[in-house]
Amino acid sequence: MKVGVVTFPGSLDDVDARRAVTIAGGEAVAVWHGDEDLRGVDAVVLPGGFSYGDYLRCGAIARFAPVMTHVIDAANAGMPVLGICNGFQILCESHLLPGALIRNERRRFVCRDQRLRIENATTAWTSSFDPGAEVIIVLKNGEGGYVAKESALDRLEGEGRVVARYLGGNPNGSLHDIAGITNERGNVVGLMPHPEHAVDALFGPGVDGRAFFTSVLKTLATA
Amino acid sequence: MARVVVDVMLKPEILDPQGKAVHGALPRLGFDGVTDVRQGKRFELELEGEISEERLAELRKAAETLLSNPVIEDYTVRVEQQ
Predict the structure, then answer these.
(1) Cα A52 from chain centre
(2) Confidence of residue A27 (pLDDT cuts 50, 70, 90)
(3) Does the model's ipTM exceed the 0.90 cut?
(4) Is residue A115 scored above 80 in pLDDT?
(5) Are the beta carbons of A126 and A212 closer than 8 angstroms?
(6) For labeling, which of A43, A51, A195, B74 is most exposed (least CB within 10 Å)?
């Protein structure tokens, strides 16, 4: 199974994301922001970093990169797409996911091993988790406060589309302690924490992040 | 030549940590009596030729598509007389 990882100017975690795909048993494919096709991949990861220097708004310029037209079309057709941190911001700017991410409430860049609860273990990217699993994943962001209209939040909660929630204190002011959400179909997931930094016991808090990548491989295998 | 100014502000209900930081700094510097600060963005678009209602509509679309994120921000578009 081929999982593409898009590199934008200013992406930081593209190499780690590709490595995570490989560790999970998939074939990682490097995709360039200027590409006019998705190189035959079965799923796409939009990695963390500071695409286009976070100019204008985080993810606002990346959202109009040539490759994003194809990512958006593929996502709407059901292809699994995971946006991590800056990737989550790009998915919100693309309107593939509702809401937006704003500057952390306490105005500090947060970098820590973060405890999370997996609230929805049915999405393309979380099906390998036990429902309600508590995991530890690296969190590092300056603009990770999730906001959305009350009606949008009600919908997310009502439809079980909150994928992960922060435990042990809200690190960035996200409404409803939201760390990640999914679209109606469950193929597009946005996540503020970085599972690709939690796939190797030597470099990180553990290997809880692997299940995001094994999930998508399982989803693709059974599709 | 015409100049069009687009002002973008966070919606009132959206928390503005940057504005809060500025608000906190003002009294420390002796600037008292400011009850709130909200920080926004101003874009100055220089245009070739005359401005028409059609071009203005086009720029409103640009403001909504790229310059602002309507989920969290409001914008205003106006022509600046030179």
Answers:
(1) 18
(2) very high
(3) no
(4) yes
(5) yes
(6) B74
Q: Give the pLDDT confidence score for residue B1 in this predicted structure.
A: 78
Mutate to test the interface with A, among B66, B67, B68 (most CBs of A within 10 A): B66
CB A125 within 8 A of CB A133: no
Pairing relation of β-strands A43-46 and A81-84?
parallel
B71 vs A64, A100, A105: nearest CB: A100
CATH number of A2-222: 3.40.50.880
Q: What is the pLDDT of residues A163-191, one digit of tens each?
A: 999 999 999 999 999 999 999 999 999 99
Distances (CA, A) of A182 to A47, A107, A108, A178, B62: 16, 26, 26, 11, 28
The domain tally of chain B equals 1
Whole-prediction pTM: 0.95
Min distance A31 CA to chain B CA atoms (Å): 24
